[in-house]
Amino acid sequence: MMPPGDGAVVAALHRSNLHSFSKFDEASLQLVAGVGVQGDAHAGVTVKHRSRVARDASQPNLRQVHLLHAELFDELMAGGFAVWPGDLGENLTTRRVDLLGLPAGTRLHLGAEAVVQLTGLRNPCHQLDRFQPGLMAAVLARDSAGRLVRKAGVMAVVLASGTVKVGDAIGTELPVPPHFLLEPV
Prior knowledge:
The chain contains 4 helices and 13 strands. By secondary structure, it is α+β, with helices and mostly antiparallel strands. The protein has one domain: Beta Barrel (M1 Pyruvate Kinase, Domain 3), CATH 2.40.33.20. Strands 2-1-6-5-11-8-7-13 form an 8-stranded mixed β-sheet. A 3-stranded antiparallel β-sheet has the order 4-3-12, with no helix packed on it. Strands 9-10 form a two-stranded antiparallel ribbon. The radius of gyration is 15 Å and the shape is globular. The chain starts with 8 loop residues before the first strand and ends in a 12-residue tail after the last strand. 36% of the residues are buried. The mean pLDDT is 94.
């Protein structure tokens, strides 16, 4: 595990018990193993996102926690978008963690107890443009090989319960090789 001394921190926390686009600021969150963020509309053992429930409500919930890097907000604001942590529906906003570059199965140790495991990328949807025109295109890019890069954060499941607070250190534990790129979930 990479030590918390690398400067990775929880920059902001958010939750909503409604299926709303944005989530509300919280000073701390309780993560529940196998469920997600206590009191959040997307918490549960099976899928809670409306489109996924409509397809098959019995699917396992691989999207219990949405994490987004604060550096994306910096980029978007520099591009003229008025977006702040929580606006894009994430539960945890991180700083100094290359979320998009981590392999599937990476475990993030949040604070003293909580552990989440990355399951995949968040696939941005058309709701972004309803929030602010042009935002969907701003969270998508192409890499040097022409592959689509989704910058709207990553999804995770909770492996170990615990309280997470703003300012908590984040430790990174990579999975045993071979490593696989995160794919949309």
